[in-house]
């Protein structure tokens, strides 16, 4: 039984890693719908700092969040070099601004370590685990926490 | 399969219930026309028939009682007095409940059911007549084809073309030719009306024909031949040896239409009465011509025949023009898909236009002409599609009559609902989603607005409170108004409650309008004792939210002692609107055209300072406050000196004017509304977004909220508190 489950996990754990404010983060590849080059977005009046605005994704209006500001890091000065990672949360597309996409990494689920206790409550919520990749720490983002807490604030 | 037929039955029930309510309302207004009574009777009978076919026994039993009483009314055995009318209304409400119960499952109020049955029973005399009750196939009801005769019959046709017929290029010869295809035809020309050569007028029609046709085809086949000259000729078709069949056919038809055989005399006499507008409401279009002709057949005399002929014509015409038009039931999804596609088409058009403008071509005139044609076509399609969704508010208003009835009964007040503008057409979604807010407003109007009868009498008002429900189109939006002639809002009390509930600080300075608006704060309820009617803990904020979700707004105005007016203003369409594309602090935005009264380019002379930070724009001698859109949206600091840019003069719903300062006006175009719901929640000052020709998203501004936000900090706070409360 256990063997089977393990084999299954090993097969499916592919992550896309990217950098936000110089730190490495990643999302499971199945959570990502597409990755687009950054284009200026339409600013929403009275929006909080981590809401960059809205973007036209093939006729749909989708909100774009600045992951960096969301994590409490400094705001990203968005430029052409940056990317927008379009993810789907509760069937709604949402765009996340990241500095750059790095690579696709394949991970054995057993290698995922629990987030060590740190002081920042916010960070703890948004990171669901960490991976060591080439001696570098990659943080796995808890997408639901990032988006849903956002929604609570705006709605 | 049964499911889908059942669905059809319930859909028809809804129409029938509407017809019934409309009829009852007309009767209450003093309509004496027997046709109105018949219409109600037929509606009830049809519901009963359908319910019988599906074995919905409760419904059948109640409908039967209802119908029996109504049958006595119809045959003038019962006098329609106030008490009976009220009972009939309650019965009709209950019938509608029963239909709902049958459809959605659940139990109707059994006690209420019994009370009504007993009350109806009082009117039913001992010798209850057995009503002809024929379970009928739903849908087949209006189909006269089974009447087609198989055996040969001889038809005598008298045909006199009017001169209009020749004007339209019709030729009798071709008609006769078509007739001869049906069977053996003999034609005789009647030139008796032909005057002498000198007296003859150019273009006048003097000739008639008498045709005899022996055919196995039905009468309708013959009528079909004359279909194109209907109204352009005098036509009578009579048949020999067919009267009996006709009578049978008539009986069958009557049965199909829920007319008892006893009704036949009545039905036959009908065409001789002038057609009344009420017949518009009857769901019986098809048999009218047949009945009328049957009447003509039975007239032996030549002269009356002509008269009957004319009524037959007239009747045919009314039936044609006023009967329910053929309709098509389409899934709403399909229409919505079409609407989305049209939205994309309009966006696509502006993208094309943009691309062409960017092209390095000197002469684009030809393309632009075509593009203009494209735009017009897209607009036509869009309007057509929206028209599919548009429905008159009448059914909604009729439901409201019931709300007022029930509310008055529950509070011991007497109130009557007057509806105006029932034919106003509004998007279907709007109608559906308006039911709750309207119900709430009306209940409030009865519960809090209208005074008790004795109080009214003391105030010198009529005992019966009047609530006017009005719908009207007003420059691109729909305005629905509920006006009562009650006591008006008790502002002192409202203010006190708001203070007690901690909604406003005790020392808040509020003007009348602001106090009225406190009603819309969440958790506000003026009922000191919880009445079982409106004080259910849900406040007027529910109304505001529901209307807000439709892109509309609610206003209150009230005069103490004279009553209050609640107006709901909604956009006409939910998908597309005309907007003015402007730029504000480097951002492209859209302002709804309907809000803009006037646009002007300002210069420094026109700007006057008022106090420290107030600025007024002088327009032809009057002064209007300036509201800088950029600073109100937080896109520019408000300390920024007013730019001598462009001003859009807007008028808010309560009549205040304000000049919105923007940097520039670019264009005026149709924009597709993309809701921001679920994208980023509520954004103050912005109602929705749209996609422009370059693929960028532009915010659609809500002038109303920008003006209120900037004009009064107190109101802004209130608004913000409300928004926050809505958000949580």
UniProtKB/TrEMBL annotation, chain A:
SUPFAM superfamilies: CheW-like
Gene Ontology cellular-component annotations: cytosol
Pfam families reported for this sequence: CheW
PROSITE patterns hit by this protein: CHEW
Alphabetically ordered keywords of this record: Plasmid
SMART domains, per database record: CheW
Boundaries of every CheW-like domain copy: 12-152
GO biological processes: chemotaxis; signal transduction
Matches recorded under InterPro entries: CheW (IPR039315), CheW-like_dom_sf (IPR036061), CheW-lke_dom (IPR002545)
Domain of life: Bacteria
Record bears the keyword Ligase: no
PANTHER family for the chain: CHEMOTAXIS PROTEIN CHEW, CHEMOTAXIS SENSOR HISTIDINE KINASE-RELATED
Protein name: Chemotaxis protein CheW
Organism expressing this protein natively: Parasedimentitalea psychrophila
């Amino acid at each position: 039984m256990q063997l089977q489950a393990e084999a299954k996990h090993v097969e499916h754990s592919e992550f896309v890693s990217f950098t936000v404010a110089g730190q490495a983060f990643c999302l499971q590849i199945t959570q990502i719908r597409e990755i687009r080059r950054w284009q200026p977005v339409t600013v929403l009046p009275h929006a909080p700092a981590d809401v960059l605005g809205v973007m036209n994704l093939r006729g749909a209006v989708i909100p774009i969040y600045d992951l960096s500001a969301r994590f409490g890091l400094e705001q990203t000065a968005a430029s052409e070099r940056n990317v927008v990672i379009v993810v789907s949360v509760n069937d709604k597309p949402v765009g996340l601004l990241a500095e750059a996409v790095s690579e696709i990494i394949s991970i054995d689920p057993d290698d995922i370590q629990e987030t060590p206790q740190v002081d920042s409550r916010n960070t703890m919520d948004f990171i669901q685990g960490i991976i060591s990749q080439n001696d570098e720490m990659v943080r796995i983002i808890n997408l639901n926490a990032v988006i849903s807490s956002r929604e609570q604030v705006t709605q | 399969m049964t499911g889908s037929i059942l669905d059809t039955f319930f859909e028809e029930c809804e129409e029938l219930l509407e017809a019934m309510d409309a009829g009852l309302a007309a009767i209450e207004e003093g309509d004496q026309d027997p046709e109105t009574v018949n219409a109600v009777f037929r509606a009830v009978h049809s519901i009963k028939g359908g319910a019988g076919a599906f074995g919905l026994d409760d419904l059948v039993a109640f409908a039967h009682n209802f119908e029996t009483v109504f049958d006595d009314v119809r045959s003038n055995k019962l006098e329609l007095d106030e008490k009976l009318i009220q009972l009939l209304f309650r019965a009709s409400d209950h019938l509608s409940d029963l239909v709902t119960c049958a459809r959605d499952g659940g139990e109707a109020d059994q006690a209420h059911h019994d009370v009504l049955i007993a009350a109806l029973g009082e009117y039913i005399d001992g010798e209850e007549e057995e009503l002809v009750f024929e379970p009928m196939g739903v849908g087949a009801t209006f189909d006269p084809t089974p009447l087609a005769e198989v055996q040969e019959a001889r038809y005598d046709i008298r045909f006199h073309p009017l001169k209009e017929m020749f004007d339209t290029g019709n030729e009798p010869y071709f008609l006769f030719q078509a007739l001869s295809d049906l069977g053996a035809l003999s034609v005789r020309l009647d030139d008796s009306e032909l005057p002498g050569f000198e007296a003859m007028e150019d273009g006048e029609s003097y000739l008639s024909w008498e045709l005899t046709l022996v055919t196995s085809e039905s009468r309708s086949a013959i009528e079909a031949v004359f279909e194109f000259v209907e109204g352009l000729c005098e036509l009578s078709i009579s048949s020999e040896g067919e009267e009996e069949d006709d009578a049978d056919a008539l009986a069958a038809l009557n049965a199909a239409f829920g007319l008892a055989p006893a009704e036949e005399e009545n039905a036959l006499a009908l065409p001789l009465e002038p057609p009344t507008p009420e017949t518009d409401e009857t769901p019986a279009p098809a048999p009218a011509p047949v009945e009328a002709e049957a009447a003509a057949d039975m007239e032996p005399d030549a002269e009356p025949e002509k008269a009957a002929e004319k009524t037959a014509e007239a009747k045919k015409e009314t039936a044609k023009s006023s009967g329910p038009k053929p309709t098509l039931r389409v899934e709403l999804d399909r229409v919505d898909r079409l609407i989305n596609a049209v939205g994309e088409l309009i966006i696509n058009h502006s993208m094309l236009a943009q691309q062409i403008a960017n092209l390095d071509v000197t002469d684009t005139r030809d393309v632009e002409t075509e593009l203009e044609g494209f735009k017009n076509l897209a607009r036509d399609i869009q309007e057509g599609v929206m028209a599919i969704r548009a429905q008159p508010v009448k059914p909604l208003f009729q439901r409201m009559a019931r709300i007022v009835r029930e509310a008055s009964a529950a509070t011991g007040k007497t109130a009557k609902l007057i509806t105006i503008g029932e034919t106003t057409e509004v998007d279907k979604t709007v109608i559906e989603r308006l039911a709750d807010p309207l119900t709430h407003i009306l209940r409030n109007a009865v519960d809090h607005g209208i005074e008790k009868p004795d109080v009214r009498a003391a105030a010198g008002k009529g005992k019966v409170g009047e609530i006017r429900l009005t719908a009207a189109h007003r420059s691109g939006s729909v305005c629905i108004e509920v006006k009562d002639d009650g006591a008006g809002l008790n502002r002192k009390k409202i203010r006190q409650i708001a203070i007690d509930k901690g909604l406003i600080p005790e020392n808040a300075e509020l003007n009348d309008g602001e106090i009225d608006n406190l009603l819309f704060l969440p958790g506000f309820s003026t009922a000191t004792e919880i009445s079982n009617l409106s004080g259910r803990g849900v406040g007027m904020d529910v109304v505001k939210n529901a209307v807000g979700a439709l892109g509309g707004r609610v206003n209150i105005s009230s005069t103490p002692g004279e009553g209050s007016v609640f107006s709901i203003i909604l956009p006409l369409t939910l998908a597309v609107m005309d907007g003015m594309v402007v730029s504000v602090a480097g951002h492209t935005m859209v302002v709804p055209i309907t809000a803009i009264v006037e646009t002007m380019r300002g210069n420094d002379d026109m700007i006057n300072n008022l106090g420290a930070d107030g600025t007024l724009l002088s327009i032809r001698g009057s002064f209007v406050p300036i509201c800088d859109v950029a600073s109100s949206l937080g896109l520019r600091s408000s300390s920024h000196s007013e730019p001598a840019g462009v001003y859009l003069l807007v008028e808010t719903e309560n009549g205040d004017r304000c000049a919105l300062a923007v940097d520039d006006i670019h264009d005026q175009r149709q924009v597709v509304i993309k809701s921001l719901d679920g994208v980023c929640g509520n954004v103050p000052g912005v109602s929705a977004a749209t996609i422009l020709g370059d693929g960028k998203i532009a915010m659609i501004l809500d002038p109303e909220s920008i003006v209120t936000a900037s004009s009064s900090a107190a109101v802004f706070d209130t608004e913000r508190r409300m928004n926050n409360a809505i958000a949580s």
